[in-house]
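S.,

Sequence below, as promised.
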Amino acid sequence: MKFGDSSSIVKNMADLSTLGRRIRHFRTESGLTLDQVSEATGTAPSHLSLIENGRREPRLSLLESIAAALGVTAATLLDPAPPSPRAALEIELEHAQAAPAYQELGLPQLRPSRSMTDETLRTIVGLHRELDRRARQSIATPEQARQANTQQRLEMRAVDNYLPEIELLAQQATARVGHTGGALTHRTVTQMADDVGLTIVHTDDLPHSARCVVDMERGRIYIPPASIPGGHGLRSLTLQAIAHQVLEHRPPADYAAFLRQRREASYYAAACLMPRDASVAFLTEAKRDRNIAIEDLRDAFGVTHEAAALRFTNLATEHLGLTLHYLRVNGDGTVTGAYENDGLPLPLDATGSTEGEVVCRYWSARRAFERRTRTTEHYQYTDTPAGTFFESTQTGTGTPDDFSITLGVPYGESKWFRGRETQLRASSTCPDVACCRRPEDGLAERWEGKGWASPRVRSHLFAPLPHGTYPGVDDRELYEFLETHAGLEA
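The prediction came back faster than expected:
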């Protein structure tokens, strides 16, 4: 069942569970057996049983036939409310056992039997509620940020990571300076800043917690000097600063607003560096040749591999008809950035957040680190509980760790991509703990209590962010910087 499918009469598996229980509730109230309803509807009892257990979605015509047999309306059966307090508990237990936190325990699914008392069921559900509460409590410090980040990922998934309003603004901005394709030059970026009344100033005394600073009163963008020849990263940084002006951003009221502004600014910068029309034309030709490669998109527009992969996620579904996923993963396997609309089962915590979670060691995002030579992309097919995916991964070196950038698509879409001939294939059953986290037979017994490790602790995880107008930026440092430079330029 797919979301948005016009043939679907329910939205998700939770609704299927409720629907099934409502059908069973009204059937038993009517004193009918499955065989009797089967005879009345012309449907096999086994099929009706699957529907009542929430494992099969009925066609609308069948649902109407079932409703007629039970003496109710189809609307009554589709009511989202559980038919009884007992059913509400059973549905809640089903949801709890389907959550990643429970699946990681490797415990069997408990299906309430008729002999299980309501008191026993309430106790089990209560335990699940407490486990969920404690899981959420353990991440209470960054909870607001994680929830806002998760909500943003879901919002972008709903629109296929495509923001047409910002595409239009970027298109208008690049048209005014005559940029239609190829690498965007620093000179052209300077013209784009001038176009909105801003002047670029390089300085080496930026506040330690800020990547750049904009003095809106004097129309200055302060950015660091280029650390490497060409300073390609500064183009994106400058364009993001320009974006805040173009998009008329105001100081964020909360973390969610801050993330939204950052997302919009990053999107605007990418759309300027890789204009939509030129990028779509380039990718359409590559698809026609069955030779899509992120490295080619990267080189065509003179951007980083990460920027090219992210820009591809903006355009692939809307303009190429491709669903896909993107992952940025640290060398230790932790996720620092993710997007998917192809059903890849991302690792999730109790809040639904994926950042900071560890991906399966058999995924391309981690296996790419095992190669001795990392100058080329790593291609592989990965079998997962949600299907098989083709993935292309490029590794890089950053601060403080190595990282990988992965772009993947469902198996059926691999025909459009370079590297599809790869013979590398891996199988992943995560979040099942037996997949890659449980020690092999005998190892735990052999070494438990006999080894000691000194972990690499990331001290920044324990440090609270400075409180200020912008998350992580110290207001005093920011205002002192602006005051100092205002005096220097007076």
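Confidence is low (pLDDT under 50) at residues 1-6, 459-463.

Coffee later?
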